[in-house]
Amino acid sequence: MNRIILIGNGFDLAHNIKTSYYHFLSYFWEELQNKIQDNQFIGQRYEDDFIIIDKVPRNWLTGKGYITIKKTLQDSHTALRFKNKFLENLCKGIETLNWVDIESDYYTLLKACFQNPSPGNTITKLNEDFLAIKEDLELYLKMVEDDFIKKFPSNRDDISLKRNISEEIYSDFKLRDFSETSIKKLTEQEYQRILPTLKGIEENQITIQEVTDDIREQRLVSIIVNLDDKDRRKKIRELLVSSVSPNYFRFRPKEILFLSFNYTSTETEYNSAPTDDEYKERIPTSTIHIHGELGNKKDNKIIFGFGDEIDKDYKAIEDLDDNNYLENIKSIKYLESNSYKSLLEFINSDDYQIFIFGHSCGITDRTLLNTLFENKNCGSIKPFYRHIDDNNDNFSDIIRNITRNFTNKASLRDRVVNKVFTRAIFK
Asked: In sequence order, what E strands does 209-275 have?
């Protein structure tokens, strides 16, 4: 059985890497403000690819960022005009919610282009504006990633976080986390594995002590040897999901796949398995950056857009017979690299458990998440959540989002680990 470490933006944020869309836009406007306030522009017109200011004021309000720029210009009776209309839409989120979701906003505006077409609201202009934001975002993320690589781990909190995450990644399987189908399958496998030994004991060919050097197997055989076949299976299942399971079994991942939805490579801090006193070979690991890698312009370029083919409007978009509408649809972009194919090969090769680290499981990735969650080999989905304060965490938010990625709600309830058996690993 394998394990997938599903990594989202919250994983970077837990490592104090400012990779959220809000962080990016905050940096964008702070840098732009520094540029505008240069003496060469005071009293003059400022224009770049994103905005126009007819007359840059001399006096500025205290603070940095979009809100400060806008209020300063208002006080100076000067307007901020947007050339990049997509950026203008994103800034509405900054003003009202201090929250930005670039990919969701893009899809909303994309749908508006064909539902309410107008000369100033075209898919060509939207894609041009979106590309400009994407290019600036990639430069920003490379900068913060480089800074992280230089510093991490730099303090006691970093070391503690790394230890906690590593312990979970390479932990043994806990069968209570798994679906009924998986438990039933493993019960039968364990029964068939020790059946020859049980028969040998029954026929007085060997003793329990001669069975094996493995103390766990000796304990298991001694418990079930005097039971009939039906009760043996029942007892094995009971032990598999019990709190004393480690006394009778040990199941560790055959392989661990880091499936990162981030563009950064933070997971490289964790992709070397620790030594194990019982097993000579370390657990092999591999990594798939499903949305591309920073700086890779050849075979795994950045994929930035929307990925919800389950959305009720998506079929209408495909039927438009206009490829411009499909330019930033993730499932199409996946075909430009081997990442998606490699992921399918992995999930179809063996049973697997999913650990969710910092991924909200929102609808921008719904098509891919549905493929992962509802695959017949998926036996367990374990979300590790974020501690907010003594009374709050984001476990419920993750579960609600996971629900949207399932079409089969019975599978959802069977596979998703409840809160009692997981924990807050991020702050």
From this structure: 256-260
